[in-house]
Structure formats: structure tokens, C-alpha cells
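Hi V.,

You were right to ask for the full record rather than a summary. Here it is.
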Amino acid sequence: MLKRVVRGIGFLLVINFAPAFPQEFGSRIDMGRIESDAITEASGIAASRKNPGVLWTHNDSGGQNRIFAFDTHGKNLGIYVIAGIQNRDWEDIAVGPGPIDGEQYVYIGDIGDNSARYDNKYIYRIREPRVDTTRTPTDTVITEADRLVFQYPDGNRYAETLMVDPPTGDIYVVSKREDKVHVYRAPYPQNFHSHPTTHTDTLEHVTTLNFWAAVGGDISASGSEILIKSYKKIDYWHREPEQVLWQALQQNPEQVPYFQEPQGEAVCLVADGSGYFTLSEERNNRPAHLYFYPRLENTAVQQKSDMPFTFTLEQNYPNPFNASTLISYTICKKGFVQVKILNPLGREIRGLVNEIQQPGNHSILFNAQNLTSGIYFYTLLLNGKTSSTKRMLLLK
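Predicted structure:
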């Protein structure tokens, strides 16, 4: 959503200051029922970082080897069957970075084990598909999937929480049933394999939390916020820049709003930082509903010129332009960067950048060959919270 349109030559620098804790999130909003009748035991949810407004989920144990795309009102956007793998007990799903810079991946945790009888657990990884929200939903087969085979260092565990840390690429698994749950890490780069393998990794036990029955979790696109959910509550942790994630989890958490759902096991933060979604299983012939908890705005305009800023967005060159133009910007700290092209109504029509970038000067060439003449906007977001927007003119 376009937060502020800046017209003319200059620009307004807007910086979001970190709100005082506890974090301010609003009351639950019912976004609607899940349209797909095939989603009956949703056990995890993840927000796409490649397809704005798209969410992913999967069914629990015994379901087929497939994931589901749907929009923020529960509308079905397609089923993606992943060939060559099975759903023994899928419990959570996450979106995050992987081996190719700038690419986003979907991670699926086959980590459930009610009786703690399986030595080997699995995490599957696929490149996040492109989802065309304007077309009739179809079934798609994905033939390229990697798998990480792992064990715990301290015996078999039952887990339902899988998280991927965007700044580092580390994978975290949180056990479920202990009075104090265990947190395990698979540091990047992990030993994923494209074919069945006998190689088994052992996760690192990095910390223990005073938390009971962890059933889902997520890390924000910036890496600065962490949610872990039980059946009755959702805990929130803030992570400082350069802080190791598991060290952040050792801090006392805050509780954020949650209205208990029947068999509610899924939570995810939105990539743009606007709030978080929850999703539950279908129960007693009541279709599953998607719920949203919006972040209450707490922003301020930077007015002191001697205070450091986090980015600058330059005017595109040339402007006006015909077919292509160069967009340049500077970021002053490592972070998750998004550059988007918007139409005059503020709707995104193309994503140019969607990745973690290092501090420094960056440029990207925007090719508008398929667009008609007119005014367009481009916007820069850093860690999903701060944005600057400029206008450009396409003349053909």
C-alpha cells in the first residue's frame, strides 16, 4: 500500500522509530473463511516475500505432498504438488533466503512425531513459486525439491515450529511438549540434497525457553521480530541489530493479542511489517478462518538534520524516460530491501528488488517496455518499515 506520495523534486524522509514495548498490535480481524475445501488441517502459515498479498499453508500429518496459496481474504490461489517427497507429519512452513542470492524459498517442516519414534526428521526446500493472482487457480507440479535430513543431539523430539532467519539463513526448530521447550539451530549453509540421501545432520541445541507447547512461529523479514505461538498465547521478542537470534530469545518476551482458536497452530508476520496472521484447523464442520492482527502505527517524521538516516532514494535517470530508466539508492545498514513500481493508484505492478542487501550504493535498471505512457511511482522499503516514494514519467 502506498503510504505517502511525494510530488515534485524534493523528498520527505520518514523514519519509523521502534515503539515502546510491549508492541502495539490491534484486535483480531476476521479476514474470511478459507475458500479451498482441500485445506482441512492447516498446521502452518507463511507470508510470501515474492508475491505480495499471498500466503502459504499445508495440511497436517497424513495429507498429500502439497502446499496451498491463498490471498489475505482466504481466496484460493492454487495448489502446488511437490513431487518426490511425502507428508509424514508436516507441522510448519516458512519463507526465507537460500542458496541463490535474491531468491526466496519455501521451507516445509516434516518435524511432527507424536510418539518420538522417528530418528530422522526432514525439512524440504523449494524455490518460492510465482503466483498469478489474476488467473483461475490451477494445480501445479513442482519437480525440484531439496531435503535436509536431521536428528536432534539429545534424543527424539516432537516439534511443530520451524523458522528461517532472514539475515543469516539459519534454520530454527522449536520442540513442543516439554515444560521448557528446546530451541535447535541448523546454521547456514545447510546440507540440503536434491535426492534421497543417507547423510544425516545433527542440529545444535542453542537455548531453552520457559514456554510450553510451542505450535508455530515466525521471524520477520527484517529479522528484528520473533513470534512463537502456543494454543493459548503468542509471545513476541524484539531482536537488536547484529544480535544472534537465539540470544534474543533468552530475553523476557511480551505477549501480543491472540483470541484462542480451535486447534490454532499457525502464525506468521507479514513481510511489510503491518501485522500478523493466524490460521486454525477446520473443526466440527466449521470452516477454517484467516485472522489478522494489525500493527498500530507508531511513526515519527525525522526533523533533526544531524540524526543519522537509514536510506536515500534518488530521482530516476533519465526522467522522463522511454522504455528504461535507472533507479539508484543508498542504504546505511544491512537489511531487507524492497523496491517496487506502483501505478497512479498506489498498487504494486512490479517488484524490482526483494532481498537482503549490504550497506552502500545500489542501482537497478527498470525496463518499462510493456507499460503504457503515463505517471508511475517507485518506492523503497527497508526492513518493511521505512519507505520513500518518488514519481517518474514514462513517455513513448
